[in-house]
């Protein structure tokens, strides 16, 4: 039997309001919905495979098709890509620095607040970028939620705009700004009542500094930490194990613990069913939804009103293509606030106009009267700023809509997956692949992130850190990640010792440091934001293809040394 909420969410998701149903992970959905959805996804995968140089492999980087030729095949596979032209127009008009710098930014996921054109304006007219900084507040999360108020006019304006963007009612939820994503996770761990709700259950296929900060703090406070596992080789959730951990001790459904769940992996691009949240809630768990890896329009489209998580974490940076500074947002359901513990914490920040930041008292030699005047001037500036303020990037995303933004990302990431799998080492009878992809391959509902490794002609992995450095020389920014919690079935049991590596890190415990030894896979990662275009994806493909040259790495090392640069260590 399907609950009314499950049926309603299924229909909403199928109509495009949610990022990914994937209901087969949890339970069988309505037959008609599954049939139609399956046909749609199958057709998409078949079209991708048949439209881009079918039955063709490339063994020489000089033989890959040109940008123009590749784009013609791309448009043939995805004719509706032309509908996303408004995004190209926004990129050209508002983010011209991406073309001027000739730099491809594929190393972080997130949503910007403002556009570069706002930064370039300095004439004082309405719509200018309200430059801001952050100042730390020494206050507990519970105290800030209960007594912090709306904050300054600038804070209130930005908070209101973000809540509108996320489609979250201020009647049901309260929000605090945090220094970053990690600070938001740590604040929850510091405040959650682990004395009575002792478990922490996480669903991440990759190592995360933010999650590690939560796990370490939760363990210090007595939590029992559990983690979902992911099946090799596609890294799908091991559903049977996760379901068992969620529903264990079914008679004791109250005060189970905290279930931390992302709808999408920011490393592998795997998408997960939001029905896991329903299962957790029905079995007495509080739910923290990590929305940091979601696309910009998906944040307000995952049927939040149906699932109502207790906590939601997201992050915003200032401008895409710049240094990704910004802040984190921790959003807490008002009915959950009384359950929190008023423990000491750090990481909550205030948003302040950058040019009007007050100096600390020890750095300020002004008189009391002068300090009072500075404070009045700052308040006046904040009032004025909160009235011209425009989060133009959020406005652009809202104007584009979910279908346009999601479709563009879907076309680009699946073309990229298809393209890199066609790169094969020459002179190998087994047609050894240049690239190994971890997670979903070509898939209708995969996320716009990709985890991969490059292998040389001998089959040895090129270190992801080296790939990252060489990409940077080509003005392409990519990331490095670590996949873990990988489960091998009997069929792949022999792969365990061959594939996995150890990653040893020191972690803080009560009064001492301990070493945690994790097994996993270090990978190169890329992420496509809504502003990414076909040329960005093609340039990454052309860069990866250079590794088909058996001497590429050695030639790059020699060239770097010849230019009196520091030698890259492999």
Which term fits the overall shape? globular
Mean pLDDT: 83
Instruction: Give me the number of helical elements.
Output: 20
Report the helical percentage.
Answer: 25-40%
Radius of gyration: 25 Å
Uncertain segments are 1-25, 27-33, 122-127, 356-366
Structural notes for this entry:
This protein is α/β, with parallel strands linked by helices. It has a domain at 132-392: Aspartate Aminotransferase, domain 2, CATH 3.40.640. Helices cover 38% and strands 19% of the residues. Helix 2 runs antiparallel to helix 3 and helix 8 (153-166) packs parallel to helix 14 (368-388). The model is unreliable at 1-25, 27-33, 122-127 and 356-366 (pLDDT under 50).
Characteristic terms for this protein:
single chain, 570 residues, alpha/beta, Aspartate Aminotransferase, domain 2, eight-stranded mixed sheet, six-stranded antiparallel sheet, 21 strands, disordered N terminus
What's the gist of this structure?
With 570 residues, the protein is of the alpha/beta class. It has 20 helices and 21 strands.
Task: Walk me through the topology.
Layout (H helix, E strand, L loop, with lengths): L3 H14 L13 H21 L15 H11 L7 H10 L2 H4 L3 E2 L5 E4 L1 H5 L11 E5 L4 H7 L5 H14 L6 E6 L2 H11 L7 E4 L6 H12 L3 E4 L2 E2 L4 E2 L1 H9 L9 E6 L12 H8 L2 E6 L13 H4 L3 E9 L6 E8 L15 E5 L14 H21 L3 H9 L1 H19 L14 E4 L10 E7 L5 E2 L1 H10 L2 E2 L1 E6 L1 E2 L7 H5 L1 E8 L4 E15 L6 H12 L6 H11 L8
Helix pairs in contact: 2-3, 8-14, 9-10, 16-19
């Amino acid at each position: 039997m399907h609950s009314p909420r499950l049926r309603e969410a299924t229909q909403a998701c199928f109509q495009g309001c949610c990022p990914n149903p994937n209901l087969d992970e949890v339970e069988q959905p309505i037959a008609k919905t599954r049939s139609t959805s399956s046909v749609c996804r199958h057709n998409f995968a078949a079209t991708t495979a048949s439209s881009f140089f079918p039955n063709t492999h490339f063994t020489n980087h000089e033989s890959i098709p040109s940008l123009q030729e590749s784009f013609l095949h791309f448009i043939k596979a995805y004719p509706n890509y032309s509908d996303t032209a408004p995004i190209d127009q926004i990129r050209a008009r508002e983010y011209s620095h991406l073309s001027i710098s000739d730099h491809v930014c594929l190393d972080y996921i997130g949503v910007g607040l403002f556009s570069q054109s706002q930064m370039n304006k300095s004439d004082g007219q309405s719509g200018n970028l309200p430059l801001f900084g952050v100042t730390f507040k020494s206050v507990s999360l519970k105290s800030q939620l209960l007594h912090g108020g709306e904050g300054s006019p600038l804070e209130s304006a930005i908070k209101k705009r973000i809540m509108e963007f996320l489609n979250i009612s201020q009647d049901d939820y309260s929000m605090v700004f945090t220094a970053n994503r990690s600070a938001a996770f740590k604040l929850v761990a510091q405040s959650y009542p682990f004395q009575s709700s002792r478990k922490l259950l996480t669903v991440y296929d990759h190592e995360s500094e933010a999650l590690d900060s939560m796990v370490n703090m939760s363990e210090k406070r007595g939590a029992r930490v559990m983690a979902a596992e992911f099946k090799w080789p596609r890294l799908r959730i091991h559903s049977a194990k996760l379901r068992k951990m969620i529903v264990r001790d079914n008679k004791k459904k109250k005060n189970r613990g905290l279930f931390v769940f992302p709808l999408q992996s920011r490393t592998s691009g795997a998408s997960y069913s939001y029905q896991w949240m329903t299962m957790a809630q029905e079995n007495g768990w509080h739910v923290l939804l990590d929305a940091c890896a979601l696309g910009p329009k998906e944040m307000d489209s995952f049927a939040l009103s149906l699932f109502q998580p207790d906590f939601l974490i997201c992050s915003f940076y200032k401008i895409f293509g710049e240094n990704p500074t910004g802040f984190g947002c921790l959003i807490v359901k008002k009915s959950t606030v009384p359950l929190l513990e008023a423990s000491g914490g750090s990481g909550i920040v205030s948003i302040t106009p950058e040019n009007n930041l007050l100096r600390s008292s020890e750095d300020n030699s002004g008189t009391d009267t002068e300090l009072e005047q500075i404070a009045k001037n700052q308040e006046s500036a904040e009032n004025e700023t909160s009235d011209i303020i425009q989060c133009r990037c959020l406005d652009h995303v809202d104007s584009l809509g979910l279908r346009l933004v999601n479709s563009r990302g879907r076309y680009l990431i699946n073309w990229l997956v298809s393209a890199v799998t066609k790169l094969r080492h020459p002179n190998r009878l087994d047609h050894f692949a240049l690239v190994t992809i971890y997670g979903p391959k070509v898939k209708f509902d995969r996320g716009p992130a990709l985890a991969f490794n490059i292998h040389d002609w001998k089959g040895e992995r090129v270190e992801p850190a080296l790939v990252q450095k060489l990409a940077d020389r080509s003005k392409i920014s990519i990331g490095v990640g670590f996949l873990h919690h990988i489960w091998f079935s009997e069929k792949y049991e022999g792969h365990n010792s061959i594939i996995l590596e150890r990653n040893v890190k020191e972690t803080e415990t009560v009064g001492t440091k301990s070493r945690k030894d994790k097994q996993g896979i270090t990978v190169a990662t890329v992420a496509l934001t809504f502003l990414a275009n076909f040329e960005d994806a093609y340039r990454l493909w052309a860069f990866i293809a250079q590794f088909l040259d058996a001497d590429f790495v050695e030639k790059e090392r020699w060239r770097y040394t010849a230019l009196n640069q520091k030698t890259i260590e492999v």
